[in-house]
Amino acid sequence: MRIIFLGPPGAGKGTQAKLICKKYNLPQISPGDILRQAKKENTPLGRQAQSYMDQGLLVPDDVILGIVSERIRRPDCEAGYVLDGFPRTIAQANALEDMLQELNLGIDFVLLLELSEAELVKRLSGRRVCETCGEEFHIKYKPPHTPGICDRCGENLIQRSDANVEAVKKRFIEYREKTSPLVYYYEKRNKLRHISGDGNIQEIFTRVQQALKAG
Ligand code: AMP
Predict the structure, then answer these.
(1) Ligand 1: does its nearest atom lie under 6 Å from the Cβ of 7?
(2) Confidence (pTM)
(3) Residue 138 pairs with which residues in a beta bridge?
(4) Residue 62 maps to a domain
(5) Which of 110, 124, 155, 209 could be bridged to 4 by S-S, CB 3.0 to 4.6 A?
(6) Is the residue at 22 inside a domain?
(7) Residue ranges for the chain with pLDDT beneath 70
(8) Helices and strands in the chain, H and E counts
(9) Alpha-carbon distance values, 53 to 28, 60, 164 (Å)
(10) Is residue 196 one of the residues assigned to a domain?
(11) CA 71, CA 111: separation in Å to the nearest integer?
């Protein structure tokens, strides 16, 4: 099964992608996670992406396509995968279509998580991430047992470097201008499923599973 999670920043794509991957034993492919790891390790890729990410801007298509095309060709992707945060532009979606055609494959579902901008801002501002293991929390919706400390590894929780007001504004603008045209793109291909991103993690996961069952 090959699934794409689409939706604005803060809609819960990463959280739902992780749950689907666990349930169906699929790899999660998130260029954002790959780039954050590269930044942490200070690799050339990380240094190249850093200023775009910190400003809330999309990283250039050729960089992202290099990451994804290498990743989806690995053996663990044979049975499928969940794309979280990719594609984010029409050029990326066209390139994905070409890559898949080459492999004689297609996308099965595009799940669009929808939420009001006011709620998205609340989600983004409460988000905390472990600076060591990357586990994600939310001060209200998924609080750690001890405030500021990761449940998994005991290290400090921080805010993402693109969680400041200016970067968040830019991320919304980038979404509206460059990513939201993908809604129509996948609607036309009859792949799109609209899912309300309202409610708690489990409620949303139930809707996601229903959308996949509905075929
Ligand atoms: P995310 O974790 O998916 O919110 O991504 C964090 C940041 O990584 C984005 O704001 C972009 O700077 C960059 N990024 C992630 N995925 C993409 C993509 N498909 N295209 C361009 N930039 C991306």
Answers:
(1) no
(2) 0.94
(3) 127, 142
(4) no
(5) 110
(6) yes
(7) 215
(8) 9, 8
(9) 20, 11, 12
(10) yes
(11) 21
